[in-house]
Design brief:
The chain is an alpha/beta fold and 403 residues long. It is built from 16 helices and 13 strands. The protein is 40% helix and 11% strand. Helix 3 runs parallel beside helix 4.
């Protein structure tokens, strides 16, 4: 057997007739251990993928890859021989405009790509320009993740134009891109036309302003939005009237993240009005909003009917015993709760005991975070006893992290 045939057999052994190719560090180590002289991973992968018996839909993922982005040259061969449905190039760090141009050359027109992940590459406005040229080649695109790339207002404009023909778009992540205050209305108007949009993540961008009211209602009315992430978007209590209008037009919403804003007690009380009768809500993240007992009490009353709630995060909100005990009344009605975060509040023994009593018969809880509260010795004893008696599935937490 010649060396080429031997290498091909090794590729068959490592990857097989795969439909998912993940070039992470573990796979690369296996390859290098068996083929020390392997020069270009992608070149040999291209030979494997070009074989007729291996022509099937594939998912190509370069996850935390230590090798050079120059290996992207092999993608052209993959796209020429396979139906690539998913391409993840997240967190490569050194991915720049030239690397994206290689990707642009590799992606054919009318390709079947449905998922494109490019988060954490910091390629800026120039990279966004190239991404905008790639998007018209992908009419079947359903999910795109451009989070943490600093594309700014200019890059966002180009990306939105590139998405014009992606009529099946369902999930968009634009988190942490320094989009600025003027982009909120543009995002709302741009994505209003995607009737199948179910996930929109625009967190860690200072975009909230009162002008968003009408466009955002349009987004929710014409979409099946189920996941909305507006974490750290400079939202304050005055914006909550707008959010209530959004929630009223969004019956399918199941996960909402408004953490790291500044809604405070008044804003939480307004938000609570919009969350009434939301029986389908499964996750609510409102940490770092400083709404105190007033907000916690209002939210607890509104959430009593959320029987499907699985994740609740109220950390760092100045909640004291009064608010915690009101929240405990809601906790008693949630049989599906798996994660509860009440850390960095001001609960003392009474509040902690009320919460633990409400959770006593919850068999699904796997994560409980009560760190940095003023629980005292008796509270510590209650927590320790609860951890001992509760479900064995509860994630063990080191004691000094709990108290």
């Amino acid at each position: 057997m010649d060396s080429g045939a031997g290498q091909q057999c090794i590729w068959d052994e490592i990857l097989g007739p795969c439909s998912s190719i993940a070039l992470n560090n573990e796979v690369l180590q296996k390859i290098l251990a068996r083929v020390p002289l392997l020069i270009s991973t992608c070149q040999h992968m291209r030979h494997l993928l070009s074989r007729p018996e291996n022509r099937m839909d594939v998912h190509v993922s370069y996850v935390s890859m230590d090798s050079s982005p120059e290996d992207l040259v092999g993608l052209q061969g993959i796209f020429q021989t396979r139906n690539v449905t998913s391409l993840l190039l997240d967190n490569m760090f050194s991915l720049d405009e030239d690397d994206l141009k290689m990707l642009l050359d590799a992606v054919p027109y009318n390709c079947v790509l449905q998922t494109l992940g490019l988060s954490g590459n910091h390629f800026g406005v120039s990279g966004a320009r190239v991404v905008a040229e790639i998007l018209p080649k992908c009419p079947l695109l359903r999910e795109i993740d451009l989070g943490n790339n600093q594309i700014r207002f200019e890059g966002l404009q180009m990306v939105i134009r590139g998405l014009d023909n992606c009529h099946n778009l369902r999930a968009v992540d634009l988190s942490s891109n320094n989009l600025g205050l003027t982009t909120g209305t543009m995002i709302a108007e741009a994505f209003a036309k995607f009737s199948s949009l179910s996930t929109l993540k625009i967190g860690l961008n200072q975009i909230c302003c009162t002008r968003l009211h009408v466009p955002w209602r349009t987004v929710c009315r014409w979409s099946s939005l189920s996941i909305l992430n507006m974490k750290g978007t400079d939202m304050d209590c005055t914006w909550m009237d707008n959010m209530v209008q959004v929630l009223g037009e969004c019956p399918s919403l199941s996960k909402l993240d408004l953490s790291h804003n500044n809604i405070r007690g008044e804003g939480a009380r307004t938000l609570a009005f919009g969350l009434r009768h939301r029986s389908g809500l499964t996750a609510l993240h409102l940490g770092h909003n400083g709404f105190g007992n007033l907000g916690c009490t209002s939210l607890a009353r509104a959430l009593t009917q959320c029987s499907k709630m699985a994740e609740l995060s109220f950390e760092n909100n100045l909640i004291q015993d009064t608010g915690a005990c009101k929240l405990a009344n809601a906790l008693k009605t949630w049989g599906c709760l798996t994660s509860l975060n009440l850390s960095y509040n001001r609960m003392q023994c009474e509040g902690v005991m009320g919460v633990l009593h409400a959770l006593k018969y919850n068999s699904r809880l796997t994560k409980l975070d009560l760190r940095k509260n003023i629980v005292g010795e008796l509270g510590e004893e209650c927590i320790t006893a609860f951890l001992r008696e509760n479900s064995s599935d509860l994630v063990p937490i080191v004691e000094e992290q709990l108290f």
